[in-house]
Amino acid sequence: RVTDTTPFNIASVTKPFAAAVVQLLVAEGRIRLDAPVSTYLPLPAGYGRITVRQLLTHTSGIARDLRRDNDDDPDVSEYRRRLDASVPSAEPGIRFEYSNTGFTVLGWMIEAVEGRPLEEVFRRRLFGPLGMRQARYRAGLAEDPARARPHEVVAGVPGPATSFTTTAPPGTYYVRVIALNSCGASPYSNEVQVVV
Question: Tell me: the pLDDT tens digits for 23-50?
């Protein structure tokens, strides 16, 4: 049962959070958009010319997704091994191709520049200042049985998904979504509420 306190997995919607942190680091002069990512994070030779901007705009040519499917959830060292063994799908800057791997690399770069785990960076730089006290990283069902469960259709039959995860940074965050009426007011109070 979904209520006004049910946390939701926001999966790829996490990418704008990573992009926001990158922009904060750019504003502070700690990252340059047109610098090679390898300035901040060692990358395999085939990816050495990729810029921060190209990762942000999905034009890096980096492998689209190194997971085999949504049930595949390799740890960081396995994901890194897969990146090291992969080859670019295109030259940097040539074409747009949505890339989960590109944002995983951005997450690693943020961690390298900040010197702390991405979860902590997001909490200090975004969630804390925005009052998003209930946002959290990768809570499993055992840790949070109240979270919304994803569903999928298998062989034409809808049902609960057996697994739905997103690999290491930017990873999966959970947020509580407040339903708003057409005027932007919560049906649960007289106040306008935001995602927290």
Answer: 999 999 999 999 999 999 999 988 989 9
DSSP-derived letter for residue 28 is T
Pairwise CA distance, residues 76 & 22, whole Å: 20
Reply yes or no on whether 12 is catalytic. yes
DSSP string, 94-143: S-----HHHHHHHHHHHHHHHTS-HHHHHIIIIITTTT-TT-EE---TTT
Helices (H) and strands (E) in the chain, counts: 5, 5
* Active-site residue identified among 12, 38, 182, 189: 12
The string of pLDDT tens digits covering residues 122-155 is: 889 998 898 887 777 665 545 666 666 666 677 8
How far does Cα 105 stand from its chain's mean position?
A: 10
Of residues 19, 8, 10, the one with CA closest to residue 172: 10
Higher-scoring residue by pLDDT: 64, 165: 64
pLDDT at 169 over 70: no
How far is Cα 134 from Cα 147, in angstroms, rounded to an integer? 12
Contact 66, 84 (CB under 8 A): no
* pTM listed for this prediction: 0.75
Q: Residue count of the chain, please give it.
A: 196
> What sign does the CA torsion over 26, 30, 36, 41 have?
negative
Cis peptide before 36 (omega within 30 of 0): no
